[in-house]
Amino acid sequence: MDLRHARTFVTVAEFGTVSKAAQTLRIAQPALSRQIANLEQELGLKLFDRTRGRLVLTGEGEQLLMACRALLNQANALGERAQLLRQGETGVLRFAASPQFIEGVVSQFWHQYSRRYPNVELKLVEAVGWTSIRTMIERGEIHIGQNLLNAVPADDRRFGCQALAPVDQLAAFHPKLKLGKDGGADIAEIATHPLLLLSTEFVFRRTFDAACRLAGIETNVRFESRAPHTLLTMAEDGHGVAIIPSALKANRYALRIASVNFRGKPLREPLAIFWNKERTLPPYAANFCEMMAAYVREVFPVTRPSEPRKNRRRTS
Question: Does domain 167-268+305-310 have CATH number 2.60.40.1840?
Answer without folding.
Answer: no
